[in-house]
Amino acid sequence: MRIRLSAWCALPLLLQSAEGPQVFAIRNARIVPVSRAPIEKGTVVIRDGLIDAVGANIDPPADAWVIEGAGLTVYPGLIDALSTWGIPAAAPVRSSTTATPAAPAISGPEDRPSNTSYLKAADQIVATDRSIEAARDAGFTTAITFPTANIFAGHGAIFNLAGERPGGMIVSPSAGMYIAIRTGAPGIGSRTFPGSLMGVIAYIRQIYLDADHYKLANEIYATHPQGLQRPAYDRTLAAVLESPRILLPASRAVEVDRMVRFGQELKRSTLLYGGAEAWRSAELLRQAKTPVLVSLKWPERLPTADPEAPDSLRVLEMRDKAPSTPGVLAKAQVKFAFYSDGIANPKDVAKAVKKAIDAGLAQVDAVRAMTLSAAEIYNVADRLGSIDKGKIANLVVTEGDLFQDRTKVKYVFVDGAKYEPQPDSGSARKAVEGTQ
Amino acid sequence: MRIYLSLAAAALLPVSIFAAAPIVIRNAVVLTVTKGTIRNGSVLVRDGKIAEVGTNVNAPAGATVIDASGQYIMPGIIDCHSHIIAEAINEGTVSVSSMVGIGDVLNPEDIAIYRALAGGVTTANILHGSANSIGGKCVVVKMRWGKSASELLFEGAMPGIKFALGENPKRRGLTAPFGAAPSPTPARYPATRMGVESVIRGAFNDAKVYQAAWKEYEAKKRRGEIAIPPARDLKLEPLVEVLEGKRLVHAHCYRQDEILMLLHVADDYGFHIQTLQHVLEGYKVAKEIAAHGTGASTFSDWWAYKVEAYDAIPYNAALMMRKGVLVSLNSDDAELMRHLNTEAAKVMKYGDVTETEALSTITINPAKQLRIDNRVGSIEVGKDADLAIYDAHPLSTFAKVTKVLIDGQVYFDRDKDVAERPEKEKVKQMLITKAAEEKKKSAPQGAGRRPGQ
Fold first, then answer.
1. How confident is the model at residue B178 (pLDDT cuts 50, 70, 90)?
2. Which chain A residues contact residue B435 at CB under 8 A?
3. CATH no. for residue A412?
4. B234 and A202: CB-CB below 8 Å?
5. B436 Cβ partners below 8 Å, 6+ apart?
6. How far apart are CA A371 and CA B376, in angstroms?
7. Which of A183, A192, A196 to mutate to test the interface with B (most CBs of B within 10 A)?
8. Size of the A and B interface in Cβ pairs below 8 Å
9. What residues of chain A lie within 8 A of the CB of B89, using their CB?
10. Helix/strand/coil (H, E, C) string of B131-147?
C-alpha cells in the first residue's frame, strides 16, 4: 500500500480535483447556456461539481474562487456523441507458442457469432487513458464511449472526461447497444456466419426476435414454472434487452433508408451513425424522427485510390456535399449530434465542425449539436448539455467563438473541477488549480 | 455552380414529365406477344395502365403524343434471373441460408438498373446466389430508376427463394488450395450431390417439425392452456411458406440427374418447384419437367464454363418448349441483361420457333413463371404500361431501345440521355477540380519542406 502510494506521489500530475476549490465563480463573461439565449455579461457559479447559479445579475459568493471572465465565453462542455476515448486500444495479439484454440463452429444465429452484447464500456474505461486528457484540452467534457469490436459490440457509457476512478466519471453506464455491420474478409467473405451484408441483417433481426421471445418465455415461466419447459439462459439476449436504444451504421443515402426502416421493424429506439450522405435523406429522417450521429471525418478520396479509376458523379457529389449534412438536418429539424470518429487529434475536431459551418450550419446549431442535442439524444439532458442551475458543472471557457480558427480554450471544467489546457500541446497537462 | 448541381440532381430522377397526362404512342408496330402484331398501331396509356391498343385509339385532349413512326413497341422485358441491385449475393457460410433475403440489401442507386432499362428490361427477379443447397429469399422488382428500395418492389408479387444443386453448393472450390494452410473452419457440408439432397431433405424435416410446433402451440392456446410459444425461426419460416405454397422455389441446376432428384424430393414433401434456373440439360428430362408444371429459365447458347455445363445445346429452349415446358430466357448477368432481345432471337435461329414464341421467352413466359402475368408480360388493355420502344424489330441485332415506360412513366429516353452527357461531364470535372483545390488549401503550410532545407 505504501509502495503504491509513493508510486502515485512520483506522478503528482496525476493527482486530481480532490484538494482543489469546490466553489468557482466566472464573472463578467459572455455565457452561452444553449438552452436559452446567450447572456452577454454574466456570472456562472459552480459548487460541489454542479452549476449553482447562472445569470446576468449574480454576485460571486464569498467562498468562491473568482475567475475574471471579461473577454471570455462560457459554453457547456463539448460531448463526443460516439467515441472510443477512455478505452485503451486493444492490446496487440500475444505471440504464443501454444496453439490458438480452434474457433468455435458457427452454424447460424443460434451460436451467437460476433456477439459481446454483455460487454459494458463502463467496465472498460481507464481513468488515465491518454485520450481523455487530449480531448479535455480541446474542450470536451463528456464522451459516450462504446465497445466496437463485434456486430453486437456492447453497451456504451456516458462518462465525464476527468476523475480518479472510472466509477466516479460515469454519468450513465447504459447509453445504448453499438451494432456494427461488418462481414469478415473481403472477396468471398467470412467463412463463418454471417458472411454477407444480408447475413448480418438477418442475424440482427433473429437476435431481436429471440430477445423478445426470451423476455416473454421468462415471464410466462416465472408465473407458471410447473409443467413448462424452462427457457435456456442466454447472456447475449439478456444484455440486448437491457439496452435503451440501438446504434446502427448508415453513411450513404441507401443505408439511411435501409437502417431507418430496419430500426422501425425492430421496434427499437434507433440512432444512426455516419451520415455522410444524410443530406439526401432529411425528409425521411424527419418523418421517422430518427436522430443521426454525424461523423466529423468527412469523406475524401483515399490517397491509395487507383488514379486510373475515376470516381462516379454520385461519389464526387457525396464527398462535396457531406459537410452540408448538419446544416440540412438542422433546417429539417432532424435531431443530430457530432462524433469524432477516430480523428487522431481532438483539436482537429473543431476544424471539422468549421467545415460544416462553412457549408451552411449556423454557429448556434453547431454548438447545440456538440452539447445539448447530444445530451437529448441520449436522454441525459436533465443533467448535461446546457448551463442551467442544478446540472453537472461541465463547461468550456474560450477566448473567441467555438470552432473558429483562432479560438483558444482557456479553461475546462469537468464535474466542477478546473483544468487549463497546456498551450501548444495536446499531451502535456497542468493539474488542478490550487494544488500547485 | 448551383445550376450545375441542381441539374445533376434532376438527372438522377426519372423522366417524369409525362406522369400526369395520358400518353399516346402512335404509328408503331405493336408486338403485343399475346394478341398478335399490329402494324401502324397505337397504344394509349392512362393512369399507369394500358388503356387502348389498336390501329385507331381515342386520344383524349391534352394527351402527350409520342410519334413512333417506323419503331416497334413490345412489352417491357422480364428477366427471371438477375443479381443486379443487390449489395450482397451469397451468404455462403452455411448450407441453408434461408434466413437471409435479397430484399434487405437492395441498392436502388445501382447503375445497372439504368443500363437494364436501356436494354428494354422493366422487371427482374433478383435472386440470392447459388452457394447453398437452400439459399436466401428473392424479390421481384421493377426498374424504377430514381425510386427508393421499397418502391422498386413489384407490388403483390409472390416472394421466392433460391435453391441450388450441383457444383456450387458442393463448395469444392472453397477447400484450401494445394500447399495452403488448412482453414480453421472445416469445408462446409455438403461435398457431393448426395449431400445436397440430404441437406434439402433435412431442412424440410426441420421445417415440418417447426410447423407442427406452432400448430401444437396454437391448439394449446385454443384450449386455454398455459404455453410458451415456439421461438420464431427465420431460417425455417420461409420453408414452411414453401410447404404451404406461399413462396416460389427457383432452383439453380444443370444436370438431368439432379433435376429429377429435386422433383422427387419436392413430391415427397408435397411442395412445388416453380422454376428450374439454367437447366442446361433440361432437354433430356423435358417431359418430367412439364409433368410437374415446373417452368424452365435457361440461356440461349452459354455453356462449357464449368464441368456440369458441357452437355448444353442451343436447342434446349426450343426442345423444352415443344415438350410443353414453360420456357424463359434469363441473363444471370448485368451485361447480358442489356440485350435479352438478341438472346430471344438466337432461340428463333437455332430452334426454329416463331417470332412470337421467341419474344414470349423474355416477356409473358417469365411473367407466368413469376406469377405476375395478370399485370405484365404482354401489351393488353388493363395491364401495366411497361413498354419498350425499339428503333428496329427487337429480334434484330441492330435494334436499339429509344424509350422505356414503366407504369406509364418514361424511365429511359435515349435522346435525352445523349443530350445530357456533356452537362454531366462538366459537373463532374467541376467537382474534381473543387476537391483538388480544397485539398491544396487544407494542406499544412510549407508541407514537403524539411527543416534545414
1. low
2. 300-301, 316, 319-320
3. 2.30.40.10
4. yes
5. none
6. 54
7. A196
8. 138
9. 196
10. CCCEEEEEEEEECCCCC
Chain A contact present for B176, CB below 8 A:
no
Structural domain boundaries of chain B? 1-76+377-417, 77-176+186-375
Q: What is the rounded distance in angstroms from the CA atom of residue B389 to the CA atom of residue A275?
A: 40
Interchain pair B109, A314: CB under 8 A: yes
User: What is the average pLDDT score of chain A?
Assistant: 89
> Which DSSP letter does residue B308 get?
G
State how far residue B112 is from chain A, nearest Cα, in angstroms.
Answer: 13
Is the CATH number of domain B77-176+186-375 3.90.230.10? no
Q: Running DSSP on this structure, what letter comes out for residue B413?
A: E
Do the bridges between strand A78-83 and strand A50-55 make them parallel or antiparallel, or are there none, so unpaired? unpaired
Half-sphere exposure of B243 (CA within 13 A, CB side): 19
Which residues, 6+ apart, have CB-to-CB distance to A113 below 8 Å?
A106, A151, A192, A193, A194, A203
Is B55 in contact with B27 (CB distance < 8 Å)?
A: no
Thinking of the domain B1-76+377-417, which architecture would CATH place it in? Roll (2.30)
pLDDT tens digits, one per residue of A152-173: 999 999 999 999 999 999 999 9
How far does A366 lie from chain B, in Å, by closest CA? 21
By Cβ distance, the residue of A108, A254, A320 closest to B235 is A108
Task: Name the minimum distance, in Å, from the CA of B426 to any CA of chain A.
Answer: 10
List residues bridging with A158 in a β-sheet. A144, A172
Rounded CA gap, A368 and A349, in Å? Answer: 15
Q: What is the pTM of this model?
A: 0.91
Place of cell 421493424: A265
Question: pLDDT tens digit string along B293-314?
Answer: 999 999 999 999 999 999 999 9
Write the residue in B101, B108, B431 that is nearest to A317 by C-beta.
Answer: B431
Range of the domain at A37: 16-77+385-436
- Nearest residue of chain A to residue B151 (CA atoms): A257
User: Is it the case that residue B131 has pLDDT exceeding 60?
Assistant: yes
Domains in chain A, number: 1
Cα nearest neighbour of B85 on chain A: A254
pLDDT tens for A11-51 read 444 444 445 789 999 999 999 999 999 999 999 999 999 99
User: CB distance A198–B149 less than 8 Å?
Assistant: no
User: A425 lies in a domain?
Assistant: yes
Position with higher pLDDT, A239 vs A107: A239
In a domain, A37, yes or no: yes
Question: What is the rounded CA–CA span in Å between residue A347 and residue A53?
Answer: 30
